[in-house]
Amino acid sequence: QVQLVESGGGLVQPGGSLTLSCAASISHFSIYTMGWYRQAPGKQRELVASVPTVGPTNYADSVQGRFTISRDNDKNTVTLQMNNLKPEDTAVYYCNAHPPSYYSSYDLWGQGTQVTVSS
Prior knowledge:
Elements: E1 3-7, E2 10-12, E3 18-25, E4 33-39, E5 46-51, E6 58-59, E7 67-72, E8 77-82, E9 91-98, E10 108-109, E11 113-117
Parallel strand pairs: 2-11
Antiparallel strand pairs: 1-3, 3-8, 4-5, 4-9, 5-6, 7-8, 9-10, 9-11
């Protein structure tokens, strides 16, 4: 069964850190661009960070320098290390797998994990 399972969300104080993990049960994991998106209440889902098969990682301006995305193609996992968290980082975070066009037209999504930054 194809699925992405996120873990690591929770409540943290401003300035704190969290690590989100995504375990992917998909074939040919290494060909996917993996990413993390987030959606805050009343707002659209937005890209936080992505890591392609090859090439540089990409970050939203709002998290540049604070968040780090990485992938392990042997373990089929992608991780988002979040440091110096701010209240505006509060959102549901979703793992995303974007396939190359020659392989599939469909993105895969996890169920989401809640991150709350509050004192």
